[in-house]
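pls ignore typos typing on phone
zinc ion + seq
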Amino acid sequence: MPSFRPQRFKGPELNARSADAARPSAAQRGYDWRWQKYVTAFRARHPLCRRHMDLFDRPVPVAHVDHIERVTGRDDPRFWQPENHQPLCRHCHHVKTQAEIAGAHFTAARPYPDAQPDELGG
Ligand SMILES: [Zn+2]
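k done
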């Protein structure tokens, strides 16, 4: 008579590995459950978009924890460096991502041509 043992999850790490297997693209870059947990804590400490505050002195709720210097993944030493993290709203994160794709170098204090105050409602 075969014995049946229900498979039990041993913890979030095991669950994360399963999720990684299903969605390799996000996991390969290191954005796993541990990062999500960090993001939640980071947003509680930094509730406002840094770029909106720097450029327009305008409070906009944070949406993303952005890597100031682009990282290659979890093994990148800058991935977990707090100095390399900044709070950005969805719009600013999108602008930065587009700029990175275009090969530009982003700093929060440097305005982009597309960052018009009226576009951002400021
Ligand atoms: Zn913003």
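The longest strand covers residues 64-67. Residues 65 and 117 are 23 Å apart (CA to CA). more later
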